[in-house]
Amino acid sequence: MDGSGPGLAEVARQWGRIGVVGFGGPPAHVHLLRELCVERRGWIGERQFEDAIAATNLLPGPASTQLAVFCGWRVRGPIGAVVGGLCFILPGLVLIVALAVLFLSGSPPEWLRGAGAGAGAAVAAVAVDAGLRLALPAWARGAGPERVRLVVYAAIGAAAAATIGPWLVVVLLACGVAEVLRRGALPRPSRRAGAGLPAHLLLAAGGAAATGGLAALTWTAFKVGALSYGGGFVIIPLMQSDAVDRYGWMTDGEFLNAVALGQVTPGPVTHTVAVVGYAAAGVGGALLAAAVAFGPSFAFILLGADRFDRLLADRTARAFLDGAAPAAIGAILGSAVPLALALSESWQVAVLAGAALALFALRRGVVLTLLVAGIAGALAGLLGAPLPI
């Protein structure tokens, strides 16, 4: 970074603008950040930006958020990372918490409940769309044995998401470790000495979560922010089992609403965790869940951005990702099963079919599809159709 970089006020303004207009998920965020930092202002070189994309995709958690934090770090140092990251996250977070209050508090009007049920009905199709958008390029890049590996790990992830949601994180980690072992890409012994500590910490955190309450919410949010690979949609199976089945913070219908809200609001899909937090413990729970879920993204960049070159060259990291990432893609596809099974009304099934037609045959965008599904649901509510609880 040199004197030609932006001031903090400019970082806050530009990253905040992206946070406000950043509809469409990670592809839109990457485009907006590239346009700002590389093409229009020249703050970051093209090669440097591409390396940052590759490195953040090697890390767990929301990659586009980490890229936004990295770009802030690159142009203005650690304080720029914090300011840029917060300004990228906060607009969508404020909006989704306000919508959570509207949808989950009191007795919203029938048309609003219907809108949520309609948008929620389309979520299973959106999950398949998100998974295919990741799977098809990965398939095109591979050949022969690489495609076999992709299919095997994806099938494992899909089966886990469809059947044993609470253990999905373990399955993703196991696939990563399996690939490391298969390639013989174990880290050097000197780096392995403290390897047991993270495992003990994870077991302790999982044990604390079993008691419920804020410890459970913190563990759920931590899984979303620090243990998820493969893009924003992999957080859905990670959250659904905890939020609906294990702790009963939400009904199936409310969880579908939460996922839809995460899609139609700007910013990262990880904002969905704030709706779960609100259902568990009000506005304080929403803010706690968001802080825990996004905290690792800031930590990864602030502690490791200057080591990205080594990360990209690390055999163990790449081997782990080559196992965990296909499993995560499969998990995204597999998440469509419990999402579809959560639909309780016949008209929602019709909306799901229409959403699938719009996404896969008509090639419409996700946000437009969800908005139309929400309108259909609002009309159903006004006409007196039965609504999910």
Q: Could you outline the blueprint of secondary structure elements for this entry?
A:
Blueprint: H1 8-21, H2 26-40, H3 46-58, H4 63-104, H5 110-121, H6 123-141, H7 145-163, H8 168-183, H9 189-192, H10 196-209, H11 213-226, H12 235-246, H13 252-264, H14 272-304, H15 308-313, H16 315-334, H17 336-341, H18 346-361, H19 366-382
List keywords for this structure.
389 residues; mainly alpha; 78% helix
Structure description:
The protein has one domain (93-382). The chain has helices at residues 8-21, 26-40, 46-58, 63-104, 110-121, 123-141, 145-163, 168-183, 189-192, 196-209, 213-226, 235-246, 252-264, 272-304, 308-313, 315-334, 336-341, 346-361, 366-382. Helix 4 runs antiparallel to helix 14 (272-304) and helix 5 packs across helix 13. The protein starts with 7 loop residues before the first helix and ends in a 7-residue tail after the last helix. The protein is mainly alpha-helical. It is 78% helix and 0% strand.
